[in-house]
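Table S2 (text version). Query chain:
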Amino acid sequence: MQQKNRLQTIVGLWTLILFLWSGILSAAPQLIHFWNKSNESNRAMIDHSAWQTLLDRYLDAKHPSGINRFDYANLKANDKRQLKGYLNSLMKRDPRTYSKAEQKAYWINLYNALTVHLIVNRYPVKSIKKIGWFGPWDKKLVTIKGQKLSLNNIEHGILRPIWRDNRIHYAVNCASLGCPNLAEKAYTAANTEKLLEAGAKAYVNHRRGVQFKNGKLLVSSIYHWYKVDFGGRGLIRHLLRYADADLAKRLRDYRGSIEHDYDWRLNKF
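Corresponding C-alpha cell output:
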C-alpha cells in the first residue's frame, strides 16, 4: 500500500511539473516596455558576420533528414572565443537606437547564438531540457544597457509582443530535433522577411511540423503551446498559407481533432 501511495505521489508531482512547464511555454507574451523604442532614422547596420562564419563552419543545412544539425562537439577553441566575442559585441550595443527592422534581426541572432553557446559549454548533453531544473530559458544570460535578460525575456518579452509576428517561432531555435531549423544565414534587416517565410514553409511541410498519422492530424507542440499566436482552430488557415498542394488538400478536408508532439533530442551531428 505504501509503495502504491509513493508511486501515486510521484506520478502526481510529475503531472504537476509538466502542467506548470506547459503553462510557462504557452503563456501570452508580456512586453518589457524598456525595449519598445527605436530610431527609424538610423540607417546603420549591425555586423553579424562572426555569427555567419560559425554557421558556415558548423551548421549542416543539407542533412538528409531535413533537419539542420549543428556540430557542437567539434567547435574549435578559437571559434568558441569568436562566439563569445560575438555575444559580447551584441551586449555592448543599445538595440533601441536602431530601426525596428535591424532590432528584429539583432534579437533573433542573439537568441540563437546564446542557445548554441549554452549547448557548447555543456556538451555532451542529450537535450537542452537537461540544463537546469526546467531548462535554461529563465536563466539570466546577458546584460544589455543594465538589463539582465533570459531567453524567455528575449522571446516573450521582446520579440513576440513588439513584432506580433507568429513566424518568430520559425526563427528562434531551441537546439532540438523538433524545433524549426536554425537558419543557415544570419538574420539581417534585409533578409529577415525572406528567412521567416522560408522557415515557415520548410517547417509546415516537414513531418515534425505537420503530418497525418493513423488518420489523425499531428502537429508540432509549438502550435499547441502558442495557440495565442496561431489562433487555436485558426491554425489550419495558418498552415494552409505554407502547405504544399498535397498537404493543403488534406488539411482542407480534415474535420478531426488535432494532436501534437515534440522531439527534444539535441539537433547535433
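Notes on Table S2: Residues 11-24 have pLDDT under 50 and may be disordered. Residues 29-194 form one domain.
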